[in-house]
TrEMBL record, chain A:
Protein name as catalogued: Uncharacterized protein
Species of origin: Primorskyibacter sedentarius
From TrEMBL, chain B:
InterPro entries cross-referenced by the UniProt entry: Gfo/Idh/MocA-like_OxRdtase_N, Gfo/Idh/MocA_Oxidoreductases, GFO_IDH_MocA-like_dom, NAD(P)-bd_dom_sf
Protein name per UniProt: Putative dehydrogenase
Upper taxonomic lineage: Bacteria, Pseudomonadati, Pseudomonadota, Alphaproteobacteria, Rhodobacterales
Species per Swiss-Prot/TrEMBL record: Primorskyibacter sedentarius
Domain Gfo/Idh/MocA-like oxidoreductase N-terminal: 4-121
Region described as Disordered: spans on this chain: 341-363
Entry's Gene Ontology molecular function annotations: nucleotide binding
Domain annotation GFO/IDH/MocA-like oxidoreductase: ranges: 129-252
């Protein structure tokens, strides 16, 4: 993994500091060109990886990247799935089973299984999960996707319920079908790490908040540091700046000294902030991305 | 001490999320319960938790300490009644009961039995609104006269298939689902309103229920508030609740991310709040919890409930049945006012003072 990954929250009106700023960003990035302009700045700064939700609008970005293979020779995506709103809307519209049926191949066995009154067999549940994963990956066909994440709301819901077998299905399918590294976003890193190990998943790539003030490091700051030191996790640090609560230099310097942190993911929309973060990561984490 | 045994009832939108958080709590052993369905089917094959298909059977067979009720609102009153009869502590999703007489009765029953009760008004666990409450109680902006309580979000954006959430009789609709939250915050700050007027429960896309709510609420010894809520607003990515207050010493604003204060003069005992603007963000107002799913406020409220039960307290620190009953009553006043067009509740006592006659430059 590259040392520095570019995130996408800023493009979709997600801001953990202020609803006003979030709206201003949503306005600014309404047009795909505006997103592309920022991605170009990041790419030209030497940040080659875009870690992004499987949002409908990302499909447009993937299309542009595919359309210019010379310009974007080193551009790669780390997809983060699922884009939950899509499912939430479908469930409100069609109910849980109806929504799933909408997403299954129309005349396939799974659609039939969902129509039936019989309880679903375990194999059928696995099959449905795989179809859903493939559907999320569709927009990235023809691009590089060496690492594929599962979103935190989903990871953490499954983790809390104890339905970690679903994470195992994801892990196997991403490796087998897509030849990529499966990875996990979570707000509960120490708990997730234990659960993944119980599923037989060793040294997983886990993206979680890791910052000097312990902001949203659920399970406790010390438990995070212990997990990192143990060498059992390949960590991607997000919220390194804690939404701006920590000065940039101090924040990156602190994270760079932690063992087990392989990458930092950050979001920014100004050229100044993008270059600033890149310079700090080069300075403290040693090498060019 | 052994673990608490908690039954989570209803595995819908909120129920699944409650189940995940309760199940992850280190002091709890969880049992789940929902009618037969796709989710129950999949989960019972894949997780270790016992899942009952029948509520009464679960109550009869399991030696529970507490239940978390997250079923459609219409079922709250009968299920909470059954749970209290069994001597169980109860956490119930909001709104509490559709008929506030039930809310009052259950509040009394639980109090007699000394059981811990709580209702899922999670905004009282959002750091920025807690800060707002602290500032109000400290008298930060003086006498508050002017209140605007708002909530907007994208729930019903087109005519669609009906579910219990779009059926008024089931406890659906924008008033119960959305407006309940800002109203509950107003109850927290100022208590139950004395008078409700100018209420409008409007339909935008729904046929069976309201998609937008307006109302004017008055406290005889407090401010007048305007409520503006709409769940057919796609411009918001998700539900956004905000409260603005103006008082004799300044202004307060809070939403899920931040609390902004403008003070005309500093107030004794409020450290860090100078004259002019002070803004506090989630990053500094957030308390870490054992588990995070969609926001600290959700696990925070469950943690308070679980700890109150575990520690043998007679009540939860926040959102007990009595306070949720205030909100149910406030919503009943809004419904009555919207239906009849007549103001509901007591008018301010004493006739308004006639305006004094003054000369052009008199004081």
């Amino acid at each position: 993994m590259d040392k520095l990954l570019f995130g996408d929250n800023q493009f979709f009106g997600i801001n953990h500091m202020s609803e006003e700023k979030a709206r201003a960003q949503a306005m600014r990035f309404q047009k795909t060109q505006a997103i592309m302009d920022v991605l170009d700045v990041a790419y030209d700064t030497g940040i080659n990886t875009f870690m992004c939700t499987t949002h409908d609008r990302i499909a447009e970005i993937a299309k542009r990247v595919k359309a210019d293979p010379v310009r974007y020779a080193d551009f790669q995506f780390y997809p983060c799935m699922p884009y939950a709103h899509k499912y939430a809307n479908a469930v409100t519209e069609h109910g849980m089973v109806g929504a799933l049926r909408e997403f299954m191949p129309k005349d396939g066995l799974l659609a039939t299984a969902l129509t039936g009154t019989k309880a679903l067999a375990t194999k059928e549940v696995d099959g449905i999960a795989k179809v859903l994963i493939d559907m999320e990956m569709k927009m990235f066909e023809g691009t590089k996707t060496p690492v594929v994440f599962i979103q935190n709301v989903f990871t953490d819901l499954l983790l809390g319920m104890g339905f970690t077998r679903a994470l195992r299905i994801f892990d196997d399918h991403i490796r087998e079908k897509w030849g990529a590294e499966p990875a996990y976003i979570t707000m509960n890193m120490p708990m997730l790490l234990d659960a993944l190990e119980k599923e037989g998943i060793e040294r997983p790539i886990i993206c979680s908040n890791i910052n000097k003030i312990g902001f949203r490091m659920s399970g406790g700051f010390d438990a995070y540091l212990d997990a990192l030191k143990s060498g059992r996790v390949r960590a991607v640090a997000m919220s390194v700046y804690a939404s701006g609560a920590i000065p940039a230099d101090e924040a990156i310097h602190w994270v760079s000294e932690l063992p087990g942190v392989e990458s930092i993911v950050f979001g920014a929309s100004s050229a100044g902030n993008i270059r600033g973060t890149k310079e700090l990561v080069d300075k403290y984490m040693g090498q060019h991305a | 001490m052994g673990k608490l045994k908690v039954g989570v009832v209803g595995l819908g939108k909120m129920g699944l999320s409650h189940f995940a958080m309760v199940n992850a709590h280190p002091d709890v052993e969880t049992i789940a319960c929902d009618g037969a369905g796709f989710m129950v089917d999949v989960l019972s094959k894949n997780i270790n938790t016992t899942i009952y298909r029948d509520f009464d059977e679960m109550l009869a067979k399991e030696p529970l300490d507490a239940v978390v009720i997250a079923t459609p609102s219409r079922l709250h009153a009968p299920m909470v009644t059954a749970a209290l009869d069994k001597g169980l502590h109860v956490f119930c999703e909001k709104p509490f009961c559709l008929d506030w007489a039930d809310s009052q009765r259950l509040t009394d029953t639980a109090a007699e039995k000394g059981l811990v009760t709580q209702v899922g008004y999670h905004y009282r666990y959002v750091g920025a609104f807690r800060e707002m409450k602290r500032l109000i109680d400290a008298g930060a902006i003086g006498r508050i006269t002017h209140v605007l309580a708002e909530a907007y979000g994208p729930v019903v954006l087109r005519p669609k298939r009906s579910t219990w959430r779009t059926d008024k009789a089931e406890g659906g609709g924008c008033l119960y689902d959305y407006a309940a939250h800002p109203l509950n915050l107003l109850n927290w700050f100022f208590g139950a309103p004395d008078r409700v007027m100018g209420s409008h429960l409007g339909q935008v896309f729904s046929e069976g229920t309201d998609d937008e709510v307006f109302s004017t609420l008055r406290w005889n010894e407090g401010p007048t508030a305007q409520l503006s809520v709409n769940w057919s607003d796609e411009s918001h990515r998700k539900m956004s609740t905000k409260i603005s207050l103006i008082g004799t010493n300044g202004r307060l604003y809070a939403d899920r991310q931040e609390c902004q204060a403008y003070l005309r003069k500093p107030v004794d005992g409020l450290e860090g709040y100078d004259e002019g603007w002070t803004v506090k963000y989630t990053t500094e107002l957030t308390e870490e919890r054992w588990f995070y799913l969609r926001g600290e406020e959700y696990s925070g409220q469950l943690d308070d409930f679980i700890c109150a039960v575990r520690d043998g307290k007679r009540q939860a620190p926040e959102n007990g049945f009595a306070s949720a009953t205030e909100t149910d009553r406030t919503m009943a006043m809004i419904i009555e006012n919207a239906e009849t067009g007549t103001p509901v509740g007591e008018a301010r006592t004493g006739a308004p003072q006639p305006a004094k006659k003054r000369g052009w430059f008199g004081r």
